[in-house]
């Protein structure tokens, strides 16, 4: 895995000053004012690279690109890179050689923007390292958890009630009767009867205009011929009653 990792460049600054710093006498931190800022011990180019989870601060010659010193960084902020207490343009880094020896030197940027870019490049790299570590930890925990078996066992079935729909109280809904013309007529209420409109009583005028025929007198002495003669007589001869 180490052989497959490639080196990426995080930041390049063409001008950086290097200072020899006095040993720290207390835990109050480093101060750039204690250095000889007007007379740097070396001037060159700074490159910040990363390989895997480790970042590297490389001090190189401006022309030839020859490596002057290198500071591997495994966490930030940490002992490998520290800021000074009196300026944002100066830092203290721990350089190491291939034999395991290390020393602390001071570096400084002329422009404040270069110091800001240097600081942000290290912060972004180790923020990414933290996220990768958390993701890897979560995946390992997920692999160790017991997996749920949601499959059906042999002979196991499942029952689904799809058409089981309940109706309202009072029984099933009654069908609507369709009348002529596409209009729907509601059925009569249960137990009810259709009311027949009452026949109006005869008025007094109709009673006055109604004339009943005279009764036929049954007599043994009157023959059928006499009855016919009476009917053929003029209307004035018949005595009609004045009122019914």
Total E-strand runs: 9
Percent in helix: 10-25%
User: Overall 3D geometry?
Assistant: elongated
Q: What is the spatial order of strands in the main beta sheet?
A: 4-3-2-1-7-6-5
Residue runs with pLDDT of under 50 for 5 or more positions: 235-244
Model description:
With 244 residues, this protein is an alpha+beta fold. The protein has a domain of 132 residues: PH-domain like, CATH 2.30.29. The protein contains 3 helices and 9 strands, in the order βββββββαββαα. It has a 7-stranded antiparallel beta sheet. The longest helix is centred in the middle third of the chain and has 33 residues. It is elongated and about 130 Å long. The C terminus is likely disordered.
Please outline the helices and strands.
Blueprint: E1 7-20, E2 42-51, E3 54-60, E4 67-73, E5 81-83, E6 90-96, E7 102-108, H1 112-144, E8 177-178, E9 184-185, H2 204-209, H3 224-232
Antiparallel strand pairs: 1-2, 1-7, 2-3, 3-4, 5-6, 6-7, 8-9
Features:
alpha+beta, disordered C terminus, Adaptin ear-binding coat-associated protein 1, phosphoprotein, elongated, single chain, NECAP_PHear
Give a short synopsis of this structure:
With 244 residues, the chain is an alpha+beta fold. The protein has three helices and nine strands, in the order E-E-E-E-E-E-E-H-E-E-H-H. This is Adaptin ear-binding coat-associated protein 1.
